[in-house]
Amino acid sequence: MAMDAIKGVVHIFGNNIDTDQIYPGRYLELTEPQDIAKHAMEGADEAFPSKVKPGDIIVAGKNFGCGSSREHAVITLLAAGVKAVIAKSFARIFYRNAINRGLCVVEIPDLDLSKIQDGLSVSVDVREGRAAFSNGYEARFVPFSDHILEIFEAGGVIPLYKSKTEER
Fold it and tell me: What is the pLDDT of residues 97-135, one digit of tens each?
């Protein structure tokens, strides 16, 4: 499956959204994706789990995913159906966890959040490095390498590894 554009409805968040806001630590004992998804972004917006639909996209400010290094934050977003996160910047460990798990994370340092509102739709062209919002605002970013796209297309590093070992 070739990955070119990701399209979805926007949910806006601010700066410094930490992993405890993405997935509060008090739910760490949950293991089933459908149970985990019920608490996605609960620390930043209690209503988010009831608003998010499969394929939606989070747009945020600086330092998204800061805090602990737990992978649960990424697992939670994927379980809730979030297709991508666009942010001005990401915490390094969250960014790598997202790629490893197959969650598209798009860093746009000069993203103008004042031009984006909840409910807009966005089309993210991962090969061209362009995010086009339904209100006409467009932002550019460094396109992903073929290797990173291969990870996303496989659904993460582990499924990619498994598919490569099965080919042998």
Answer: 999 999 999 999 999 999 999 999 999 999 999 999 999
Alpha-carbon distance 50 to 98, whole Å? 23
Q: Assess whether pLDDT exceeds 90 at residue 85.
A: yes
Domain that includes residue 128, residue range? 5-167
65: phi > 0 → left, psi -120 to 50 → alpha, else beta; which? left
Mean pLDDT of the chain: 94
CATH number at residue 12: 3.20.19.10
The enclosing H or E element of 73 equals helix 72-80
Contacts of residue 141, defined as CB under 8 A and 6 or more positions apart, other chains included, come to 106, 107, 108, 129, 130, 131
